[in-house]
Structures are given as C-alpha cells and as structure tokens.
Design a protein that fits this description.
This protein is an alpha/beta fold. It folds into four domains: 156 residues, P-loop containing nucleotide triphosphate hydrolases (Rossmann fold, 3-Layer(aba) Sandwich); 180 residues, NAD(P)-binding Rossmann-like Domain (Rossmann fold, 3-Layer(aba) Sandwich); 245 residues, N-(1-d-carboxylethyl)-l-norvaline Dehydrogenase, domain 2 (Orthogonal Bundle); 38 residues, Up-down Bundle (Single alpha-helices involved in coiled-coils or other helix-helix interfaces). 53% of the residues lie in helices and 9% in strands. It has 26 helices and 14 strands. Strands 8-7-6-9-10-11-12 form a seven-stranded mixed sheet, sandwiched between helices. Strands 2-3-1-4-5 form a five-stranded parallel sheet. Helix 11 links the parallel strand 9 and strand 10. Helix 21 packs across helix 24. The protein is globular and about 105 Å long. It holds the Pfam family NAD_binding_2.
Length: 635
Amino acid sequence: MQVYIVMGVSGVGKTTIGRLLAEELNLPFYDADDFHPSINREKMKNGIALEDSDRKEWLESLASKISEWEKGEGAVLACSALKEKYRVQLQSVPKEHITWIFLHSEYEVIHKRLSARKDHYFKPELLKSQFDTLEMPKYGFHINVDGSVEEIMASIMAKIKGSSKAPVGLIGLGVMGKSLAINLATKGVDVSVFNRHVEELEVDIAKNFATENKSIYDFPWFDNMEKFVKSLERPRNMILMVNAGPAVDMVIESLLPFLEEDDLIIDGGNSHYKDTIRREKELKEKGIIFMGAGISGGEEGARKGPSIMPGGSDQAYSRVGGTLETIAAKDKNGDPCCTHVGPNGAGHFVKMLHNGIEYGEMQLIAEAYHLMRFGAKAKPEEIAAVFENWNREMKSFLLEISVDILREMEGDAFLIDKILDAAKQKGTGGWSTNAALELGVPLDTITAAVLARNISGRKAERQKAMEIYGNSQKQFTTVEEISNELFKAYKAGSIINHAVGFDLLLEASSAYNWNLNLSGIARIWTNGCIIRSQLMQDLIDVLRDTPSENLLMNEKISNNIQDYQPHLSKIVGKALNSGFPMPVMSSAINYLHNFTSAQSSANMIQAQRDFFGAHTYERTDKPRGEFFHTEWLDN
C-alpha cells in the first residue's frame, strides 16, 4: 500500500494538511513528532536544535513503522525529513510505495505563522536552523502553502490523481520567461512552457529548457501552439513573456484559433498601457479575458520572487491572483509583493512608472560616481566604500549593486573603467515622460534621466565636441571633503525623484478612474523589484497618511528636504562650475525651487502668449477662471 509523507520545515502545515489528506484518502494519520523520545522534545522546547545523533533512534523507529504501514493499509505521515540522508533512512520500502509531498514557503511567511502559534514546543528561533538544514527534494510533489488550505489540498489531490493538464501555461522562454517558469514550478504550480521554433533563429528552445531543468521539474514543453493550448486546464491561464509591441499581438493572433470563452491571457512583459487597454477591449469582444501584469526584479527576481503589478478585471485577478501572489517576493511582514493594482492598463502604467523612477535613481548614482571619480579623482574601490557606507542607511538595491560593480576587476584593472559610456534604454522611461506630457504633470528628474541616456549615446559627437570646446572638467575636491555633502544631495534628489513619480501616478489614477492605492504600490515595491529601498519602505506610511498630495507636502518629507536642500544646491553649483554635468540633481533642485515658488515666471509666458496669439490670461486681481485679453502696443 501507499505511504504519503508530508514533509517540510516546522510551520508549513504538515499536521493540518496531513490530517486532511488522510481523511480524503481514508487512511490513518501519524505525526512524526509523536515518535520523538522525550529528551528530543525537551531540547526543542528549550530552543536547542537537534543533532544528527539525536535523530538516529527516531529515524530508525519511523522507518520500521513505514514498513509496517506499507504492508498494511497504508498511511499518511507528517515528518520534517529536511535532509536527503534522513529521507534515505526513511525509505524502508520500495520507492514506488512512498509519495513525498514537500510543503514549502518563504522564511518570513513561516516565521510569522510560528510566532502566532501558542502552546507548541517548537520555538520560532529554531526556524532559521531548519531552513539552513533543508535540502529540497528533487522528486515528489512540491506544494507552495501560501494559499488557502482548500487550494493546497486541491493541488495535492490533482497531483495524486495524475491530472495531465497544467493550470498555467507560459509562452516565451527568454531570460525572464525561463526564470518565471522555474519560479512557478518550484512553488508547486504545474506549468506547461512554449517557445516558437524557427530554424537557424530559435531552435529547440522549449525542448532544451525542459531538458536542462529536469532535476527541478518535468516541464511539459511545446513548440506547437495548438498542442500547448490543449495541455492546459480549462478555463486556461496563459502568461505571455514576449517583447512588448507587435510581438504580443502576433502571439495573441496565433493563440486565438485554439482558445475558448473565459480563457485568460496575462501579458507579463513591459507593454505600453494603452496597448493593454486596447487588447483587453478587443479580446473581451471575443470572450477572452486579458490582464496586463507588470513584473519587476530582473532575472533573479523572476526566479526567486519578483514584484508583480497586475491590472485587469476583478474576474481575472480572482482567477490568478493567488498564483501570482505565491510566486511574488515577500515584504518584511511576509505578505506578497503583489496586489491588484486596478482595471485595464493600470498594471502596466504602474510598471512603466516604476521603470521611470528607476531611470532617475540610476542616474543619481551615476552622477555621484562620476563626480567622485573625475572631480575628486577617487579610485573605484574608494567610491565603493562610500556607497557601501551610504547604503547602511539607504538599503537601496541599486546602491548595493553599484558597490559590487565598482569592485569588479578584470585582470589588474577595474571593469567599470573599460565599459563604454553610452547608455541604452528600452523605452519605458520615455513612455513615462510622454504620459506626463499628456496628463500635464511635471516629471523633471525622470525626463532628465531619459535625456541623459540619449545624449550619452552620441559618443562620437561628444568626442568631437570636446575637441572644439576642450575639456572643462577639473579636479575641485577630495572624496573626504565631498562625501557627506554629496550624500545629502543624493538623498534630496532621490526623494524628489520619487515625489515626481508618485505625483504622476496620482494624476493618472484620477484621469483614468483607476483608484490607485499609492501606499499599497509602495509596499509591493519594497522587495523583489529594482527600486526597493528604505525610502520606499518609509513611503508606505507617508502615502497612507497623505494619499492625495504631492509627497513633498508631507511634514516628515518636507523636514528632510529642508535639511538636504542647501547641500543639493551647493553640490550642483560646484559640479557645474567645475564642468561636470548633473542632469538629474540639477533638475531636482530646479523642480524644488519651482514647486516652492509662490511667484513663478509664468506670468511673462502668459503675457507673451496673449501678445502674439491672443491666448488670454487670468489676473491676480480677479477670481480664478476669468480670462482677459489685451490689445498690446506693438512698438
């Protein structure tokens, strides 16, 4: 008979799920903890981790019991079985008579559960040692336990019954697609994968991916679209991980002949939000559900847990929200960095703006690096040490990787000095600028970052210009003299960059009736994504307290800005006078001065417009909303 061993670290629900499974299969249930000798239980009660010598007698006893149960009616056993050698010791019967069910989740999620558990001898402090000890099995059923008990049981029973249909299909096995497929599989989500086969261009991509990852999961792979669609449970859920633009429409067109009503397509790429709005409308007319989901985190994030920004109907999110939350990163409280952002194009708009803020943050760091490298003649390892010191406070992923970049050597030289200073972009930063122009929102820092990349790409022209104008850059300081003031300037620029970004989200939310939860968006940007930082963590509360105002109006933020502003102005002035461009830092201080000026220069603009085009103007001595025109004297 069959013995089902439900395994995993303490807190994953082995006992709860084991009892339910035993009831479902009409088998007796046993808990391995009940077989521990009293001395072992006393150790665990006192927070002392067990040694292998402590487990020897226990494992031998369990192996004997498993042999008895296999010869009898079978059983369900809840047992941690964290190491492979423990599982080998328990394997006292033929392998085909044991079914391993591996329950798992992230450390933060399990720790939160254990901390809430009362009257149990296992202490939460022991959890880290269990995660350190855990060797994930390369066999059996892998079941993520972030969902409800009902969802967990449904997944287990589907596997036991040998359902040949996968609940999720993934199309497009580029870097992100491959990583996301592995993430899904290791989180217990059955997934079929598809990649087109094009001779001499894309050959056996799906087949090779499945072969290379066979030790992780037996991926059903396809390069035939019809067979791929037929491999999925109905109603079907398909994730598209293909390049934004025409490629998305081409894949949808190739899918449509094989789809049925209520099938769901999820676009996980960086599509433009207006394309997402269009696609959702067009597909709805055909009875197909469409969702645009922004996914951030790069290759590592997609593999280990990204930040996910799904936008679409409530119906769509209710179908796949649990799955998306399962594979997402977790915030500091163990909650998924995934939330239903809003309807139609909201998810891709939010992802677009995430990338816009990312552009600004990257350029801020680049400007600080450049000023120290060439204005203070600091070596890369010195700058790395400065950034590392800054990041003790900032906890910024981008600062963190910048430290690693600056320390990377190629032979005896620093790699950073060999990288051409011509930056690339994929368009999302520029899309943010275009959206801001359409909505009438200032987006100074993000736009400056986009344009800085544009001018960097003109390397040959810049070299010729230097021959004409000469190199005006000169050393003007040392790292020791500048690092503290530069840090405060950097912090000011970062706050202002986030403020203009969230201001655009606020305006888009109103213009498109999306009802965006800005605090919730900040929360899902605290892990898994590229712009995660301590500032983003702080913004959760700030945006909750003042959800409908520019961030710079918040008292805590304004206090910080007033402290940092003089240093930002001073750094920008020194840098410009010494010939060093500071596009984002200078745009940040200009934005701040404009934002805090009760009297701007725009009265002259309005007078000029009325003079040459009779565009009218409002008056300071009349109510707002009344417009006037002057017959100007043309001298």
